[in-house]
Amino acid sequence: MGPIERRWEQSLTRRKALAGMAGLIAGSPLLHAQLDPRPFSEHRRAPGLSEMLTAFDFEPVMFANVPQSVYDYTAHGDGSEWTLRRNRQAFDWVDLVVGQRVDPSAVDLSSTLLGLTLKYPIMIAPTATQVALHPDGEAGMYRAAELSSNTPMCLSTNSSQPLEQVAKGAQGQLWWQFYPRQDMGGSQALLERAQGAGATAIVITVDQQASYYERSQHDRNLGARASRRGAAAGAARQGGAGRPNDPEALGTATIGRGAAVPGSAGAANARPAPVRRGAAAYRVGGGRLWYSWEYLDQVRKFIKVPIVIKGIVTAEDARICVERGFDGIVVSNHGGRSMDYGPSTLEVLPEIVAAVNGKIPVMIDSGFRRGSDVLKALALGADAVWLGRAARWALGAFGPLGVERLLTEILFKELVYAAAATGKTTLASIDASIVKQNWP
Amino acid sequence: MSDQKFSRRRAIGSVGAIVAGTVAGSTIASGQAPAARRERAPWEPPLEVRVAPREELVNILEFEEEAKKKLQPATFALVAGGDRALFDRITLRPRMNIPTTDMDLTVNLFGEDHFTPILVAPIAEQKRFHPDAELATAKGAAAGKALMIVSSRSSVALSDIAALAKPSFWYQVYASDSDAKTQVQDAVKAGAKAIVITIGASHVANGARPATATSINWSAVDAIRQGVSIPVIVKGITTPAEATAALQHDVQGIIASNFGGLLADKDAMILALPNIVDAVGGEVPVLVDGSFRRGTDILKALAFGAKGVLLGRPVMWGLAAYGDAGVQNVIEMAQTELARYMGMCGKPNLKALDRTAVKIHGPIPTKATTNN
Question: Which among B46, B144, B362 has the least Cβ separation from residue A440?
Answer without folding.
Answer: B362
